[in-house]
Specification:
Blueprint: H1 3-32, H2 36-55, H3 62-67, H4 69-95, H5 102-121, H6 131-152
Helix pairs in contact: 1-4, 4-5, 4-6, 5-6
């Protein structure tokens, strides 16, 4: 191993540590999102955005906007679940070493975090846990893993980093 590869490795570890801290912080965000306060904030934000869309007549038909409000609210609410777990999976991906079990490990942690988030909602007034939300959380984590897998594959003709071989060795 030469000095350049050692420096490159230590730089990768530092970045992984920062991503690990970010992933841990994001777990805190996910757990906070299960609180009553977070639920109120999201509802207020959605109501303000939706109200502005109705009053500004963005869609052109106020009656239509009012009639689809429950559907749009449900989609907005569930997209928050998807986004939270997508970000969790990508941060976790960047913070862990490349192993064959990396993707399944992240999916399992995503599922466990989704179950934890719904469990915490049992103790928050005005929040109701749902198995459907765990499935949406898992889908968000799966989308994050799929994106990381797709972006992590080397493109044909891309030069390999110094110090790596063309064959992959799994221990």
């Amino acid at each position: 191993m030469n000095i350049r590869s050692i420096n490159s490795y230590s730089g990768q570890r530092r970045r992984a540590n920062w991503f690990g801290l970010a992933a841990a912080g994001w777990i805190g965000v996910v757990c906070f999102s299960s609180s009553s306060m977070a639920g109120r904030w999201c509802d207020r934000a959605f109501a303000a955005i939706y109200r502005d869309a109705v009053y500004l007549n963005v869609a052109g038909n106020r009656g239509l906007l009012r009639s689809v409000h429950p559907i749009v609210h449900l989609l907005a609410e569930k997209s928050v679940h998807l986004g939270l777990f997508f970000i969790f999976a990508t941060l976790f991906w960047k913070s862990t070493a490349d192993t064959p079990k990396k993707a399944p490990l992240i999916l399992v942690f995503g599922l466990l975090l989704g179950v934890l988030a719904e469990f915490l909602q049992r103790f928050a007034p005005g929040r109701d846990p749902a198995g459907r939300d765990v499935a949406i959380d898992f889908a968000g984590a799966a989308l994050g893993v799929v994106l990381c897998l797709a972006l992590g594959r080397p493109r044909p003709g891309t030069p390999r980093p110094i110090g790596t071989s063309t064959s992959t060795v799994h221990l």
